[in-house]
Q: What sequence folds into this?
């Protein structure tokens, strides 16, 4: 039994060019309701996706998230640090954050900004700063101009290069592509975390669950 604590889309949008195949799914799109949920998928992580952790790690932990989603922010603050400490920093797992930006234009801008930061090797610096300074959803806290002002505070950042990249919408298609990949895998809300590897199909955990929920699935997949 999983308690779904996340934001969910009420409708659908066209899916194309996604990587992965859903094997089994029973997802009801109702936020914050107890649901019995079992989903296993085959997932191919895009080669361009930045990661945290050792390349020799046995397991992958892949989050599909929206930078405006408060439940993603809760996961970042509450469960992710313990996962990082116990599994990523110890070399047992690699962590990936992939875009599922669906809550509005500011989500799209935030997602594009992450990839502009990645051009400077600062993907997770940007990721962490964005969630640590997350504003209210669709309140205008992450318009392009405000995002540029926030980016000034990231250590070692070339802000002129970042501003130019963001203005050009260089990564608009990539953010859309990753969101479509998530949709193709059965993602209907954020955060959705897949835990597995190429040998074992990925098991999903949906919502900002307590750490022990993630630990149970991770330990099962490591066993």
A:
């Amino acid at each position: 039994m999983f308690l779904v604590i996340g934001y969910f889309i009420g409708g659908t949008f066209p899916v194309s060019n996604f990587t992965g195949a859903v094997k089994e799914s029973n997802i009801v799109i109702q936020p914050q309701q107890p649901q019995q949920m079992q989903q296993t998928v085959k997932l191919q992580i895009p080669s361009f996706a930045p990661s945290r952790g050792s390349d020799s790690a046995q397991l992958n932990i892949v989050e599909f998230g929206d930078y405006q989603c408060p439940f993603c922010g809760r996961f970042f603050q509450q469960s992710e640090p313990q996962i990082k400490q116990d599994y990523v920093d110890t070399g047992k797992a690699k962590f990936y954050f992939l875009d599922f930006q669906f809550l509005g234009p500011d989500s799209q801008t935030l997602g594009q900004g992450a990839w502009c930061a990645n051009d400077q090797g600062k993907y997770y610096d940007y990721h962490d700063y964005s969630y640590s300074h997350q504003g209210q959803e669709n309140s205008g806290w992450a318009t392009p101009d405000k995002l540029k002002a926030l980016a000034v505070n990231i250590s070692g950042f070339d802000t002129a290069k970042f501003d130019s990249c963001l203005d050009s919408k260089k990564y608009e298609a990539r953010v859309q592509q990753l969101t479509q990949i998530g949709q193709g895998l059965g993602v209907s809300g954020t955060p959705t975390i897949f835990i597995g590897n190429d040998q074992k199909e990925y098991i999903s955990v949906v919502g900002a669950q307590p750490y022990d929920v993630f630990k149970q699935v991770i330990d099962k997949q490591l066993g």
